[in-house]
Amino acid sequence: MYRLFKLKRLYQLNSKVTPPYTSEPAKQSCSVCSHNFAMKPRNDAQFIQNAVPKRFQSTNIHTAIQNSHKTKKKKIRRSKKKYAELVEVTDGASNQTKASVSKLKPKHLSLLVKQPDINLGQLYNLKNVTEQSVMSPEMDTSHQTQDNIEPVVMSKSISAEKVYLLRELKCENHAKVSEVEELDVLNYEHELADTHDRSIDDLEFKPKMVALGTAVLEHNLVDDPICHSQEMEDELDESIVEAISAEEEHGEPAVEAMASIVPVPELPQAKSNEKKSKDATFKMTYKKGVRDQMAKVKLTDLEKAAKEECLYRNLYAYLETCVSCGLLNRALFSLLFYHSRSRYSRYTSPANEIELFNILLHGFARKGNLNKVKEIHGILRRERLPLSAQTFAALFECIGRLPADSAATYQILKGYVEEMSQKGLTFNDIIQKSVFVSDQREVVVDVIRRIEPNFEPDSILPDMCYACNLLHELNSENRSGKGRTYKSPAEGLMTKSDLQQLIKEQLQTELNSYVKVKTVEDRTEPNETILYYRKRLQEAQDNWKETICEAYHRDLRVLRVQQHYRVFRHINLYPYLKVLDPEDYFEIILQEIRKLAEGSETYSPTTNQLYRDLGDQVRKRYEIKFKTNSGILEKVVHLYKEYCDWYLAPEDSEQIMNTRQKWQQLEYENPEGPSVNMEEKSWPPSVLGGVGKFLYNIIMRDIKIDVNIVKVNSKTEHLLPAFYTLFRTQGRLLKEEVKPHPVLARLFRGAAQEDLVFEVADVPMLCPPLPWTSVNSGGYLLAKEALIRLHHQAAQQRHLLKKTPVQQLYPSLDSLNQLGSVPWIVNESVLDVAIEVFNSGGSQQLDIPEPPSSCPAPSAVTPEMTKKERFQAFRQRMALRRRKAEMYSLWCDTLYRLSLANHFRKRIFWLPHNMDFRGRVYPCPPHLNHLGSDMARSLLCFAKGEPFGPNGFDWLKIHLINLTGLKKRDTVDERLQLAEELLPEIMDSAEKPLTGRMWWAQSEEPWQTLACCMEIAKAVKSGDPENYVCHFPVHQDGSCNGLQHYAALGRDEAGAESVNLKAAARPQDVYSCVAALVERERIKDAEAGLKIAQVLEGYISRKVIKQTVMTTVYGVTRFGARLQIARQLKDIENFPKDYVWQGSTYLVGKTFESLQEMFTSTKEIQDWFTECARLISQVCGQNVEWVTPLGLPIVQPYSRPNKKLEAQSTVKEIKEHYALDMFERPNVMKQKNAFPPNFIHSLDSSHMMLTSLFCEREGITFVSVHDCFWTHPSSVDIMNKVCRNQFVSLHSQPILEDLSEFLVRKYSYAEREFSDDGSVGDTAKRRLNRILRKLPFKGDFQLDSVLESVYFFS
């Protein structure tokens, strides 16, 4: 570099030296006559050949100038052969070999089935084998060649196993692929992946992939389905499902069915198609232009705002991470770089920008670096950025870290105080509006006392009451002091010292991040083979740890060198890979290796999903480390211990109504130290993916497996990569997945490890959850779980929740706290029976999955088979493969649930809760909870028991009959009488569950029936049932709860009666009523001679149409309803299978007509919801929002990602922009179809929350599974009264009127926004305003009738 600069300087100062790159020849003068002339280069080839070459690089400048004239000879690069390492796995052995990629043709692999004796290394012998034609005989062969339609072979997804054609966008020739040949190849598709280079470039079909790359296979887009048009995907998915269903019903090949759905363009009409394509493009562009003109916010403004928000989030996370790692100068340099770019384009708002500078101010202040703090402060003043209270807190902190006796420092402090006063801030504002960590608060207070020696910070107690009209009754009780004090659901279960010990155990578990649970799988004592496998696995893991250590430090050094130069100023990954100790990264990678090795053989997440999940593991550990180092953990533990002491024995003198209020009081009384309520450490998706990809590169390229490791007598070592990638087609998308080497999977299976490993957030807690007091605080002690379950791109609802006053969220938060505060225990009697059935091979009747080994082996394919027979054989093989994958998934789910239940045997535990975006509540642990299947629900009981009392035993018996499904149309007294009659069967089931008459196994809910039988038997044997302490929960389920809310909204008299809103002597069954109406119409059509109506005689039952009626309220389409009814007709043994498709189509229409006849206002309301959502998303160009009656803001997260914001990410530089739903156009189809069911879900959630809060005030135990409410048998009467009262109270509110007012206020257009030109946009805007105000018609049903309805919830 020095020589180049010196040479340039020489050219500028010396006119006699001519640069070598000048276009003019060098001029020289004669030494005799001084005549100037130009030197002409000699064109003598011989002279050039004999010329003495001079080297190009020289320390002599003149030599360098002369050598620069020499033309550099271009090297000819020879094409190297590429080889793929193939793994040939049989039942007896596995062999490794190499084959040239150029010879590895997918069309040749299919012939291996016919000639199994040929080794994979002898593929060249297959070239001369006569191939079956892949061209359709109907097509003109003169226009097509094999090169035009050579099939691209990739692994097929089990969920979409049919064969589809991948076409290039500009392809003009199409042909069918032989179905048999395609299926042949699918058995060997995994052998096409090069296990060394891990790249699709090394596959034989690379040219085809490159051609398709610009069309449908661009990796960063293909791997993420949200980057494609959702409407096109929905249409294709429905078409595919329809084709597959047609094949199942009529035996038609899927390819032929797809051919009718996706028509192939005719070849002679190429020009016509091109013209149509141009017309379609013009129309689409025109429509987009019109929609953009109508939209509230223009697309360009959205894109600009999205870029600003994404860059701000990236910078915020990056700066925080740099400060945590001590990389302060790197952070400052990057921020100044992006700040300098704001002169040309604003990268974030001033308010956000000051937050970024505050991070650096606190980082330098902690070091006491006054010079840097003054430098940043000068930048802020020069740029006129609005200084916040947090800014002055950082300035004061820096002063506080310096010696207090310095006069210069005191003068600087006085200048900061004067500037603070000019901004209108006070010392109390600095304390109350700032967030502190570690000892920052004490340092700032000490600095303030240098100015005001008597300063004492004020602590403001937040308003703990509700702002919701529906909860004014609770507010009045709280303010007057007449309400009941909090009654602990764990009172008397344990002592305070016992709970303190459980707190320590839970904290240690969350610090470890993983929980090991012993499996319940029946395994004999480990034999020599198992012990050998375990030994070799342990040796391999030790070697992997050393390899991971070396690879991590090696790759990190490379990354550091690449980003060490000062000119590199962009956001990068280096700080994120230094934020934890290296051992933490090693442990994360080892856990990921085990998860991959023990995963399903037929399914795995895409690589992008794996990257994000692995990066999220790093983020979670970083958050725990941050809380530990910043003092937050210490303060949380201190407050939590006080909270748990109160939780076990609430003081009567305190007017604390719930757990949230107690935690707020504790925070108010203990303001010292760090702030507890801090935002989650959020990393952008690009960062999570980049960190995960960095770690996965180590897994894919450095982790090796000895293929001879399972051979006892083998002395040779042959190392191969332990993981490889393959590509699966899912619909029209191509997914990259990671699979373990077969030897590695066999090693883990053979080791038969006794422990299962779970993340800490996947298991229940050993102590009560932290109360939710805000969006950021609640749930586990350290492991952070989000309040709302949202996709990483769904940012709009998170943004709304942050803007919403926390008091408005109190009802939802308190309901989550109430549900999470209920302690549970495992029903050991039922658990023992379930484990016995599970280890005995499972049972289809009892819904216990059978092990995958019980799946029958596929029939062999022989050369003597005809083409049709081979096709059927391969089709059977694919069906068995899918069935085995489903069996394995269900078997693993049951294994996890039973193992966790066994792990918590004889222990009390708690289940933290959170919500989805509609407000529906779910337990955080996914495996062991009361929200699962029948068997899962039967495993849990309340930890705290209650005596039956006068009516409790009767309610338990009625609950038993409800579980059996025998008396759905009978009265409560008739159900109780049946229970008395069945008492001998109940006792037999309880005493001999597997060896007796097994009456319980015939129930609709067999496992819950068995658990209820056991509880009844215990009560009978106690001799005093009225005083028997029962832990068993009794359910009260809503009668088609969605239709109940619709009927109440529309005051529909007939609909309300059919769903038991109206008092009646006997329960009404809406499903039977609809079935009767359908049968009436069928009889009419049969008499008119309609064939399908005659075939359906005797087959229209309640069960056939139940699911369709149930899901109609939740937006099921005709296509989905037809699949539901077709499934029920197929299960009827005597129904003619040839009429399944035709019969289901007929019944769908009749079912929808009957529902519309029964629920007149329901259909009108549903149509109004749909039309409002369509116009809002299509005209306004925004996602549909609303607020529940309890104040929870809701946004539908269905949008179309803007591909312009998708930028490539590299390890060096993280992409700055990514998709966020708040800055994207909505998916109109999903918005309009989802709004009716989502709004109803938000109403049933509001009803549940109201019931939860008032049951807590009544002092009874309450738990819900959406619209199914649980409590003790003794408190069923109280819960029923609360449930009915709150339903009436909820629907007495003007729900539809409030919704219309909200939508008008947010989405309607003002008069000044109309153009009055009769244009499409103007007409659409006026229609939107009209529809939003046009409320549906209401009937005259009286809501008070619900209070007297026995079967409303029963």
Automatic annotation (TrEMBL):
GO molecular function: DNA-directed RNA polymerase activity; mitochondrial promoter sequence-specific DNA binding
Biological processes, Gene Ontology terms: DNA biosynthetic process; mitochondrial transcription
EC number: 2.7.7.6
Cellular location(s): Mitochondrion
Protein name: DNA-directed RNA polymerase
Domain DNA-directed RNA polymerase N-terminal, chain residue ranges per copy: 504-821
Similarity comment: family membership: Belongs to the phage and mitochondrial RNA polymerase family.
